[in-house]
């Protein structure tokens, strides 16, 4: 069967003595028939689309919305203007739906939106009355109260240059260049911003949570995962992304050249859900950067071990056979485990439980801690069979 092609990565075909690697999956694969694994392999390796699992992520497309429709937007990075916040339909003001002045209800509103705390660049007490219940320049529909604080606007155009908004509530991820912070914002409610010098405008709450002020530099893209909630996202979006995925949606976890897949030290490695990867030969890949093969949420990050070990909890089959490890729940539904990583390297890259990472983002460094006999990366992907072959294809 045809494996997905990842261009530009060198194939390394040498058969080198495998590094020992503790893996607690003995016997798992043996009972699986060739027919069964072929079917599973084909399904998982070939899948291109994102599965809905409620897993948010930082991945964006720049000009296509989640339905694949293309928009011409002025730019995907540049300054963002500050749009003053409008009243939500959930707030009442002395029997009216909206404030009668810039000040009315402000304290209450700020406490609701968390806008009032610790925002150096936010305006001082500005409060814009609504424009007929619409946002700003008013080309769209009235946002629901839960969405309204996260509104943003752009001068959207379609492929032929006609003015068009994406569907109201379409989720975009705005990332501030200066702070690296990200916010999931609601697009499609409004045409704007008013001043053409800015690529977009966003509510005060958005700027507050990005920790930037009016005119701040941002990057904007449609959220690939439209299930991610509005608001600030605990997201390592600013992390270093060193590889771009090909059609498969995956990248090799080690940079070229010379990411070599070992033959595997037991059957589980040869046809199972795990693989050992080396750079060069022997011990010369200490400190090599490890990339997330696919975007997702960090669900495990363990860095207790400083050295190799072959006893106790990191002995083969015990609790920590891979020594230090990071596990990421990907937005395709797989969980990928990266093992034997260098102590504290993950946290140096901002990797901790709960953060989201992008495909190709640096998450840790190679080491040989745990039950290992040479520096290498152990990688294990849940429910994907023949990871060994998959990695060989990804990293060729
Ligand atoms: Zn291994």
List the defining traits of the structure above.
binds zinc ion, 396 residues, alpha+beta, Glucose Permease (Domain IIA), 6 helices, Barwin-like endoglucanases, disordered N terminus
Task: Report on this structure.
The structure is a single chain. The protein contains six helices and 17 strands. By secondary structure, the protein is of the alpha+beta class. It is elongated, with a radius of gyration of 24 Å. The N terminus is likely disordered. Bound molecules: zinc ion. Zinc ion binds next to strand 10.
CATH superfamily of the largest domain: RlpA-like domain
Q: Which ions, cofactors or small ligands are bound in this entry?
A: zinc ion
- Helicity, as a percent range: 10-25%
CATH architecture of the largest domain: Beta Barrel
Main beta sheet strand tally, sense and closure: 8 strands, mixed
**How many runs of DSSP E, i.e. beta strands?**
17
* Mean pLDDT over the residues: 71
Spans of at least 5 consecutive residues with low confidence: 1-56, 113-134
- State Rg: 24 Å
| The CATH top-level class label of the largest domain | Mainly Beta
Q: What is the string of SSEs from the N terminus onward?
A: HEEHEEEEHEEEHEEEEEHEEEH
Beta-strand content estimate: 15-25%
Global outline: elongated
Number of helices: 6
Ends distance: 17 Å
